[in-house]
Amino acid sequence: MRKKILTILLLPLIALSLGAQEIQNIQTDSPLSPETVEDGVIFRLFADYASQVTLTGSWQLPGAKPIRMYKDRSGLWEVKVSNIPADMHSYHFVVDGVRMTDPNNPVQQHDGSIYESVFILDGPRTVNYKEAAGRHGSVSYEWYHSRLFDCNRRLAVYTPHGYNPNNTNKKYPVLYLLHGEGGDEESWISAGRAVQIFDNLIQSGRAVPMIVVMPNCDPKQQAAKSVRLPEVNYSYGTNSFVSSLINEIVPYIESNYRVDSRKVSRAIAGLGQGGEQAFIAATLYPDRFDWYGFMCSGVEDYEGLRSDLLRIKKAGFKLIWEGSGTYDTVSYDKTKFLYECLESLWMDNTLYVNNGAYDWKNWRLHLASFGSMVFRFYNDGRK
Is residue 13, in this structure, part of any structural domain at all? Predict the structure, then answer.
């Protein structure tokens, strides 16, 4: 189809005696990148004007130097990287100091304003990251009015396969899933693969069918930057968003979706700053949620921490899940501290620690782990 379109567009140029060689150059195939080979992955970029090109990928350890690429006589830059582990990986090039995605790879992810090219090397970790073989859920982007912020704001809603807004006999539990600092309502969908993860977990019976609400947690934004709305110059703090979540977002969802509005049917989780917001929601509104997930967040000691935790304990809960990685220099100590506090108060909790870092590779694993535990043994109240 592409060649047919090009041919039609080029007819006027041919009439103007454009040489056949020039037409051939326009239609020349782009270099294949990335290319998976037996002993590694090859990355290519045509940039004959450039004097230096480097590659940075998510498979590298934190702080690792960019990988140098090499140019041939035609202006094609190339490098082969070996021993990349099986996972979903993101990467970018830096061309003479300018960061860019791979123009030859149409698959991208973004977290806020940071865009990366993406590829998947098959393995045990990637089972949940590909499109489910059978039944798929749906994602809708909704606008709700916030009186607190005096504007319309955007959120994303995942509904599982089989969700029917007209079926009054079926109700679903709801997970409120919060992004990290610099992210937006699209982050968990784009970089976190939340849709694919929940589709696969639900289809395989490893998760309960649920609705997942992914709001924009940044009070300065009405929506993701991709929507191209100006930022709002408000100085609202973390607690103000939590107040909006409880008093505006939750009522909006429960008024517009077929949800089970019991405490046992509500969960809240987040990564980084979103995990901190989830923790604030847990301490200020312990009567609203029964399931908590704190991904690469944890807490630092503060006056009143233990009384806040005891308030959660008194209200009752089904799950407190906290996770981090040994290479996570941001949250590992805070996560361990939260675990120790919970243990000292005899509060059941689940600690998930691996060799990951403060990045999406780890957060996707966190979501799959928490997603398979939240609403466990759930029933909709009819049994």
Answer: no
- Domain total for the chain? 2
Residues 96 and 166 in one domain: no
Q: Cα separation of 43 and 88, whole Å?
A: 16
The terminus-to-terminus CA distance of the chain in angstroms comes to 55
Taking residues 105-124, report their average pLDDT: 93
Q: What would the mean pLDDT of 74-88 be, rounded to a whole number?
A: 96
Tell me, what CATH number does 97's domain have? 2.60.40.10
Strands of the sheet with 138-146, listed across from one edge: 138-146, 151-159, 211-215, 174-178, 266-271, 291-295, 319-325, 350-354
Under 8 Å between Cβ of 130 and 87: no
Q: How confident is the model at residue 238 (pLDDT cuts 50, 70, 90)?
A: low
- State pLDDT tens for residues 315-368: 999 999 999 999 999 999 999 999 999 999 999 999 999 999 999 999 999 999
Do 230 and 367 lie in a common domain? yes
Q: Are strands 266-271 and 291-295 parallel, antiparallel or unpaired?
A: parallel
**Residue tagged 């959120």 (tokens):** 155
Closest Cα to residue 160, out of 111, 122, 206?
Answer: 206
> Are both 81 and 160 inside the same structural domain?
no
- Give the model's pLDDT for residue 239: 87
Closest C-alpha to 241, from 164, 185, 293: 185
Q: Average pLDDT, stretch 77-86?
A: 97
Among all chains, which residue has been given the structure tokens 């830059």? 77
- In a domain? residue 17: no
Range of the domain at 64: 31-121
228 plus 343 within the same structural domain: yes
- Which pLDDT does position 317 carry in this prediction? 97
Token code pair at residue 195: 């849709």
Kindly state whether residues 156 and 74 are assigned to the same domain: no
CA 310 to chain centre: 31
